[in-house]
Amino acid sequence: MRALVVDDATTIRAYYRQVLEGAGFLVDEAINGVEGLERAMVLPAPPDLLVVDVNMPRMDGYAFLRAIRIEPRLRGVPAMMISTEREAEDECRAYAAGANLFLVKPVDPSMLTRFALTLAGSTAAGERAA
Amino acid sequence: MSAADNPLLAQFIPEARDLIEEAGRSLLALERTPGASEPMNALFRAVHTLKGTSGLFEVGPLTRTVHAAEDLLGAVQAGTAQLGGEQTDLLLGMLDRVGQWIEDLAERGDLPPGAEADAETWVTRLRARHADGPAAAGAAGEATALAEPPAWLSALLPEERGRCAAASAPLHAVSTASSVARTRWRWSDACPAFVPCGRR
């Protein structure tokens, strides 16, 4: 399984990498939405999971997810958006942009692991059914 | 014990120093060019990232102080607070304080005794500088916010609104694995105006 982490904070990316690698993912990183799109497009196969921050320079997480959801190769990839904000507005905007799950930082390692495996597993199950 | 004993904390220290430096630089740029959007965005993002990343560690006083600064900057961006000389000096002082805490973390791996009380003072001072502080927040404000669909909701495209409402399906599938997800699934409670967009 492969996960693409899109977050501009170096330490947050390192934390996600540590947790996701522990859960068995190969992890790729991007520091903003633009780089995330480029990275997702050049991977040999679409990632099994996107872990996306909200507030990033150049292209934020909402714009990144909207772009992902109209890109045929990537539109089915499950995405969790992880925000520092916990308002209903942030949650609604995340789902409107195309997130499958909205979580608030800091995310406990066991919760991140469980949700990552569940979301990535749902893609694998969908591929098998198709 | 120092930051060297915790690889993630050791990674956070230089990132935090950079963010503090960037925030300070942006504040000074705003002093020269009040209202300029580029340094304002850079300042907000630096403070926002510092707050979000600090949440990974047991540094509550630091996180709360930076959060209060972010709220003040949010109010400035929303036009409900000014970024004048007094606020700039306060924010620069906050950055100095937080910078010292980062050095304490680098040396000892922990914040110094007294950080809690120090943080409360900074939070109070920062919140006093804008109308969204505790004095202004209350039930009346919340009721007003929920009485009408918020502007950001109206700005969504119809298909985006539909997708948001439809998001209940995948989320419920995940929520069977954890009560935490269920507690987060409350946009329809908090935003009743939103419900009709998928369930009319």
Short description:
With 130 residues, chain A is an alpha/beta fold. Chain A has five helices and five strands, in the order βαβαβαβαβα.
What does this structure look like?
The complex is a heterodimer of chains A (130) and B (200). Chain A has helices at residues 10-22, 33-42, 61-69, 88-97, 109-129, and strands spanning 2-6, 26-30, 49-52, 79-83, 101-104. Chain A has 130 residues and is α/β, with parallel strands linked by helices. In chain A, helix 3 links the parallel strand 3 (49-52) and strand 4 (79-83). The radius of gyration of chain A is 13 Å and the shape is globular. The two termini of chain A are 18 Å apart. Chain B is mainly alpha-helical and 200 residues long. Helix content of chain B is 72%, strand content 0%. Chain B has twelve helices and no strands. In chain B, helix 2 packs antiparallel against helix 3 (60-78) and helix 4 packs antiparallel against helix 5 (115-127). The relative contact order of chain B is 0.10. Residues 135-150 and 167-200 of chain B have low confidence and may be disordered. The interface between A and B is large, with 37 and 35 residues.
Number of strands of chain A: 5
- The total count of strands of chain B amounts to 0
Unreliable spans of chain A: none
Pattern of helices and strands of chain A: EHEHEHEHEH
The general outline of chain B is globular
Cα gyration radius of chain B (Å): 20 Å
**Which class of secondary structure composition applies to the elements of chain B?**
mainly alpha
Helix content of chain A: 40-55%
